[in-house]
Amino acid sequence: MHSFTRRSFLAQASTLPLLFQIRAGAQDPAVFPGLITRMAEPENLEFPFSSLSTAITPNEQFFVRSHFAVPKIDNEKWTLSVEGTVKKPLTLTLENLKKLPKRSMKATIECAGNDRVFLTPTVAGLQWGHGAVSNAEWTGVSLSSVLEAAGLNDTAVEVILEGADKGQVNSDPKSPGPISFARSIPIAKAKSDDVILAYQMNGVDLSASHGAPLRAVVGGWYGMASVKWLTRLNVVSKPFGGFWQTLEYSYWEQLGDVPTLAPLTQMQVKSAIARPGRGEVIPAGKSFRIFGAAWAGESAVAKVEVSTDGGKTWSVAKLLDKPERLTWSLWEFTWNVPRQAGPAQLFVRATDSSGHTQPTTRDPNRRSYMINHLVPTDVVIRS
Amino acid sequence: MHSFTRRSFLAQASTLPLLFQIRAGAQDPAVFPGLITRMAEPENLEFPFSSLSTAITPNEQFFVRSHFAVPKIDNEKWTLSVEGTVKKPLTLTLENLKKLPKRSMKATIECAGNDRVFLTPTVAGLQWGHGAVSNAEWTGVSLSSVLEAAGLNDTAVEVILEGADKGQVNSDPKSPGPISFARSIPIAKAKSDDVILAYQMNGVDLSASHGAPLRAVVGGWYGMASVKWLTRLNVVSKPFGGFWQTLEYSYWEQLGDVPTLAPLTQMQVKSAIARPGRGEVIPAGKSFRIFGAAWAGESAVAKVEVSTDGGKTWSVAKLLDKPERLTWSLWEFTWNVPRQAGPAQLFVRATDSSGHTQPTTRDPNRRSYMINHLVPTDVVIRS
After folding, report:
1. How many whole angstroms separate alpha carbon A328 and alpha carbon A344?
2. Interval B248-302: pLDDT, tens
């Protein structure tokens, strides 16, 4: 793709004035202000959301979420084992997988902690801004076709997706000993068309940071389910209670008035403003293109609304892409900026096809995840 | 019972030399060296295990485990509600419950963190010694008869036992908002004879500290299941994931090589030495009665063995009570103390009727619970 031209283009771009680079970045995906480092080791890198310009996020801009160091994998020796409560356990090479029917699927992946930096008081975890979310076209094989080849037993209830990344979780004294990153999905989701085992991302082979040689993409679900560096599919006959779906990546669901721990699953309906960015200076008395993305997990976006007066009044934004399940839609709204200089507060809110609108306040039982309440973008109007 | 004579006896006893009081305490349950405070507020008090003398623990010596302050309950206004997936929801007064068939059951209750003080390195949680365990005869009604009166729907899988004690768990940032203490048990256990809703303990009405007016006693399970100040039975159609069976009172069970979080259930086979106590001075060249208790949850104790040489050799101890499920057995072993002065290390280990013996080493995946590995009692032989 465009990765070939990247270096020379960036070399040129770096000699241009900074403001121009950012503005250019918003127009041209080949120029962007780099990834935001939220943690250096292991790699946790954020898409600089203000550089959003196309529905497909270029691979170099796609956010990176890692729980452990990138595992060293020799593609020639790598295999995917399919085991557990199956009729015929399998050990598949990359070559074997590539012989299965090839499929592509556009899917937005959002980290469950995206926008955590906006929570007050501060909570533990990576302090992501708007950009722990990106959108790509994934190519690989349907999980369902691999499961079909192995043959599920009737007792199967979930598939555990296990990665090659492994370590000891030191941030939580309740964690078990060294463990591989693993996450389960129910059989119904596993058999649906929403889940693919991808070896390509936007038409090129996966990079190491993105899970080479094979990763899961669980469309519509928060990113923790899209296990990278996939090495094992373990079909189980009772619900899995792994670390990353109990102590981490879970929330308190109300059962009457008693909270019960539930694993995170679907992305909640959400939208975010890419431009203007926080603190951006807007010329008074002119029109300004407010621009961003909206997504709704397993649903499609039905409506995006913008407020330029701190949430008092709302106007419908224009959707630039036909809303689809699993993948985000870009939207824009032309703001007739007042002549009066001073601060302004912008909001965006999305509604999905089932009628769910983003909440205005934060539910603390979501712990530090599923952050889709309205977050203001404060800007400055200058004449 | 003996509570009437307690005060006057203790008044006398307190004028006796300390050593005599402790020795007398081991013979006579009316004299004992007080409960050990592990936390003042809420009340967490330990049975001083070296004062063990009878299979039934006197009420005043029974250990107390509280998660929140003792709730203020007016027995006249108190009710037990039976709800959820039942044919006929019920609201029962104490009077209603006392009209149901009355039953008594001897049961040992052990806190899941009993002996935590012996873990190295130190782990978070109350630092219990041997005495977060006691044994009583409980009187009340079978949980099964209450459930039968309400009529379970076919979809019922668990019963959540909910207490009147409520608060915010500040020790864990992952805890939900203010919650009532609650724990679930599967329907099969709930329908068994092992579970009673008790209003009496050793023949007298429950005290406030022990859960008045009504508590659950889930025979064979760790104490967290025996919910005190019971106010609600909530029959549910999917497994409950409450705080005290996920973030607390759970362990990592191995699913192949992937740990999965599981709620604590049955007490593991275990034994403890009451006398001699740690550091006790033993006369050389005489015989000494090593004495203690052994229990095995839903199983019965089959064998108790003692080592007086640091675990090199083992001898079978004598069981003083006929082993039964749910309730502990006292045991003794006559030690022919060597003439040689010096340190000695004693061990006891029990085996249950299914052949499980206490492990010699600690499994870290049990987190800070289910502590039944062998723990030495170091004593001093003096000539």
Report:
1. 27
2. 999 999 988 899 999 999 999 999 999 999 999 999 999 999 999 999 999 999 9
Main-chain dihedrals φ then ψ at residue B103, nearest 5 degrees: -145, 150
Phi, psi (deg, nearest 5) at residue A182: -155, 150
Please name which of B213, B164, B222, B167 lies closest in space to residue B189, comparing C-alpha atoms.
Answer: B222
Identify the sign of the CA torsion B183, B184, B189, B191.
Answer: positive
Interface probe for A, chosen from B174, B181, B366 (most Cβ of A below 10 Å), is B174
**H or E element at residue A302:** strand A301-307
pLDDT on residue A32: 66
A242 contacts on B by Cβ (under 8 Å):
258-261
Do residues A46 and A75 touch, judged by C-beta distance below 8 A?
A: no
pTM: 0.86
Here the tokens at position B343 are: 């340190």
What are chain B's domains?
17-64 (no CATH), 70-263 (3.90.420.10), 270-382 (2.60.40.650)
Please give the angle made by the CA atoms of B26, B3 and B71, to the nearest 5 degrees: 110
Q: Could you tell me which chain A residue has the CA closest to the CA of B366?
A: A176
B241–A262 CB contact, under 8 Å: yes
The predicted complex's ipTM stands at: 0.82
- Cβ distance B240 to A260 less than 8 Å, yes or no, reads yes
A348, A317 contact by CB (below 8 A): yes
The encoded tokens of residue A179 equal: 């463990």
Identify the residue whose tokens are 């159609």: B237
